[in-house]
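Homework help board

Subject: predicted structure for assignment chain

Our instructor gave us this sequence and asked us to write out the predicted structure in token form, then describe one feature. I got the tokens but I'm not sure how to describe them. Can anyone check?
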Amino acid sequence: MKIKSILFPLIMIIFIISFVSAEGAQEVKEEKVKLTLYCSQSIYRDAILTELTTEYSNLRPNVDIKYTPFGGSLADSEAKIALSLSQKTGPDIFRALNMSSVGWAASGWIDPPPDDLKQFIKENIASPSLLRAVTYKGEMFTPPLDGSWFMLHYNNRMFESAGLRIPSGDDWNWETFISFAKKLTLYDSSGQITRSGWSIRKRGNPEGTGSKWLPFFFQAGGNQPFDAERAYINSDAGYEALNFYEDALYKHKVDDLEIEEDYKALGHEKTAMVIRLLDVMSGLMSKNFPGFEWQVAKLPKGKRSATVLTSATWSVNAFSDYKEEAWDFLRWFYKPDQYYRWVKGIGGFPLFKDALKRPEYAEDESVKIAYSVGNDELFPQPLVRGSYDMMSEIGRAVERVAHKDATVQQALNEAAEKINQLLKQR
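My token output:
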């Protein structure tokens, strides 16, 4: 009788503990991993990222991934990311330019991609040369996401009216390019330009101005405008490339400081030619000038053929509590169907083999022309910590020459000194 009286309360205690433990386990099991994905705001990116993150969350009951757009400029967005990373906080996954993410990788702020994902990307990238944009010290520091390279965009109707056709091979060179630009430039009775033959980047975001001049530096025989040790823009290649800009403006007079420029000039038929990244130009024109038709060509040749490759990247925060879950999302994202939906959704340029086989890209003449650029013609932007600020100094030098505020040598010598100072401060 005594044993029974002790046994019953003991059984009840065990039952209660088991029930509480099971309930606690259920709560742990049901607790979701909450991932944050951060990206500068765009009506194109917003829609597809919302769609993809929602779909992934539905596929993974234990993961809730939230897309958070940033409404400021790209520079503001990346400054905010850099600040949060320096404080070991911030989003789990974020999009950034490779020139920014390489610095964060060097600082140990972003997590290196897992080997299986690196291998998948290497096997499926459309061209091995594209990996140069995300390679630092011989290693892929983060996956490429979207990007392209600088191409010539031109109004074919103006070319036909002038009896011009872009030649192939070595005949498409700086001399031919300038002769075409002169024939395509229109002037009023007072000699003022009413339509530029070539819209030269002369103002705006300095990094963008520097990047658009960079292909000419490589075409003039330059290797890199700077590396981790010093600047090389104050060189024969740098002087020759910037003299080419200055001569186009003031000797050949194919553009000036007053007329509308860049993609708006192309859309308003105020220029015949613009040099821009293929994916960026496509997005800007489809948004601002829907239905407008233009053609794409390789850049003209200097001492050699060259253009500049850029890439945005996905990065995983090295300080995230959920790095493995973040990489799992990116493994899913880079699968052919998801990546194709991403590129199509943003109106971008495909970097992977499967997307290139889809009809809208396989039959796109501009994509075919872009991929006719040889591997040895694709030069990545310099990837050292602080590249963005250094490219901005190059852009300011270009602007100073375009606005007659400095000679070519003075502008590049002073920019090189500023870059050297930035390199010492890293």
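Reply (TA_rk): Your tokens look well-formed. For the description, you could write something like this. The CA atoms of residues 164 and 180 lie 7 Å apart. That's the kind of observation they're looking for.
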